[in-house]
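User: My collaborator sent over this chain with a note saying "see what the structure looks like." That's all I know about it. Can you take a look?
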Amino acid sequence: MPRYLIRLMYDGAGFHGWQKQSGRRSVQGDVEQALLLCSQMKTAVTGSGRTDSGVHALAQYAHFDYSGRMTPRQLLLALNSHLAEDVRITGIWPVADDFHARFQACKRSYSYLLAREKTPLNRLYMGFLPRKQIHVERIARLSEILLGSHDFSSLSKDNPDVPNHVCDLSRLAVTDQGGHLSFEFSADRFLHNMVRRIVGTLVNLSHQGLDADLLKRILEERDPRQKLVITAPAQGLYLAGVSYPRLQLDATPVCVEW
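Assistant: Without extra context I'll predict from the sequence alone. Here is the result:
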């Protein structure tokens, strides 16, 4: 059965995350329902990874098998016609039958937007840490410690199903956008809550005037219950992209304007 890779964009405010859950709206559940309406067959959709409740995606990827008569473009249009306005498929590619959206990903990128002030208009799309002063230069200096390959146990949520906690963080850029800070992350893999805990901890340490040596010790402790580690809110997190070896995803996608 032919396999397809799709790229999705979604506003996570109305979802209880990516993963399908009984009685709760999820992105995976909505896409599978759209496929059922298009093909009259139950079809499993496998994402490149899970996003938590409230987390957004600029470019999430997922694969599924489809043997109907529609062309890729027709399938994309049909799926979007059955999806709500807060989720859209923005590209589709035919891939090999053994392609896997999660296990064959070689790099993932995230953005995190941290507001200096919480407002009615940014509360669902930016994080905010009350009673924490933002020191951009301190945060940027601290962030340099995290680049490279480290065990990020202290900066992630403990998950006994994931024994390997080593990630190679290739990019962590912090820029001041005036009303908010923008954090850009790229790594070969990310652990649960890793980006949100890095953001929260960088802000917390800089707020308290603590130095890079302490951050190094936090990493070395490999303790997910470290008290100086705090988790930034989900609302500011965006899955920005996923890379796959030997796939040029921006070269020839079937894509439509919407």
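A starting point for your reply to your collaborator: The chain has a mean pLDDT of 94.
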